[in-house]
Amino acid sequence: MRKVIFLLPLLLSGCAWLAPHYKRPEVSLPKTWDGVGAVARDDREWWQRYGDPVLDQLESEAQQRSDDIALAKTSLSQAQAQYSYAFANQLPSISVAGSDAYGKFADGKVRAMGQSFQFPNKTSNFGFVGGMLNYELDLWGKNASLSQAAKAGVKGAVYAQDAARLSVAAGVAKLYFSLRALDRNVAILKDSIRTQDEILALVQNQYDVGAVDALLLQDATERRDTVHAALPDMEDQRNNAESALSVLVGRSPQELIQTGIARGQEIDNLKVPDPTPSVLPSELLERRPDIAMHEQMLIASNFNIGYARAAYFPSISLASLAGVNNIDIDNLYRATSRSWTLGAAMAAPVLDFGRTQSGVKLAKANKNQQVTLYQQSIRTAFKEVRDALLAQNTASERDADNIARDEAAQQKLHLTTLRLNQGYASQIDVLVAQSTVQLAELSRVKARLQRLDASVDLYKATGGGFKASTPDGKK
């Protein structure tokens, strides 16, 4: 029985039993994506589905050099250090203690415990060298709760890093697509400028001979000026997109100034991936790193309640001191006696004017906040998936409509050119038809960009191939 009583504190120590039992909050989830099926596939490197090696290289560069990912790694290192510190608090601390003094005992005598001890009546060295052990019995799981909370913080930081990687990958893809769209728009506008200049020159000739009035000339001049004014703005947007992409992938200031972004596939040649999601609604909780991160923060707040509750109970500490003493010797390390002590101390709260109660209330309020944030992250995730699916459908329809409109404009230009060759149309008619084609191409580029962006949003909304560990450690 004495052995059981002696071992009981050690058995209880390290158990966070004052923390509430964690149970994942229940959330009502849909069974399907509103009639849209799911196709199982590996989306971990989803950007490769667009078929552009330059994009693949930019994604690889960003994953290695992005500042956002570097900051997430730093946060993970901080969380790991905090966990190591909290875990070490559950273990004894051993330190070396030493002291040395120079003096003498009055009359060469020391009286202690009813006895008198005789020492040389002269000035001497008094020294001690030994070791000290301190250990707090964690009977109520205070340190264990803090350690478990820090452990959940490490997992949360890992998931936050995964979320940063996914966000950076999506940002790189969308910026690259915007850059390719702007490249195409700049080329179209330059063609439009040449077309409008030619139209204005022909109208000017007709006006000079009195074939057209001033109103028609003014109309042609305004169209030419509008196209000329649009080009610098479009070039500025392209330059800004290129700079933003360089920053996102983590390029140095020298590279930012001296090295541009390589170009790969034209925006019309980029592959548009399958718009169906790769996960079922019931799987989304395990496939979003931000949701997994919020759940770990919830688990940490759950253990923080146990840490706060432990303040209601006494704290018991053990301390041991062992070493060697010397008296009246020249060398401290030539001991004349050995000594050791073993002590225990207990401190129990009696009256703290509500400090502990307030701490528990604060921990519970923080847990309730984390529950709300966790549920909010789930709602946000399903909203983003829904929006991405709807955007996929509308963008696909818009892209198809613009392709048809562009083909119709191309056919009209072809027919007008044939009429010109037969003498039934003028050069201005051909140029106007050509201008219509250019406007249709601008709309087509915009529609294709929206479709590509919608596909990126869907990959991001479904977690990009990420799969989190469940609270029991399984995947």
From TrEMBL:
Q: Name one GO cellular component term.
A: plasma membrane
Q: What Pfam families does the annotation carry?
A: OEP
Q: What is its main location?
A: membrane
Q: How does it sit in the membrane?
A: Lipid-anchor
Molecular-function GO terms, alphabetical? efflux transmembrane transporter activity
Supply the Gene3D superfamilies for this chain: Outer membrane efflux proteins (OEP)
PROSITE patterns, sorted: PROKAR_LIPOPROTEIN
Q: So where does this one cross the membrane?
A: none
Signal peptide (from-to): 1-18
Per UniProt, the keywords (alphabetical) are: Lipoprotein, Membrane, Palmitate, Signal, Transmembrane, Transmembrane beta strand
Localization, UniProt: Cell membrane
**DNA-binding in keyword set:** no
Protein family per UniProt: Belongs to the outer membrane factor (OMF) (TC 1.B.17) family.
Q: What is this protein called?
A: Efflux transporter outer membrane subunit
- Which species is this record about? Acetobacter oryzoeni
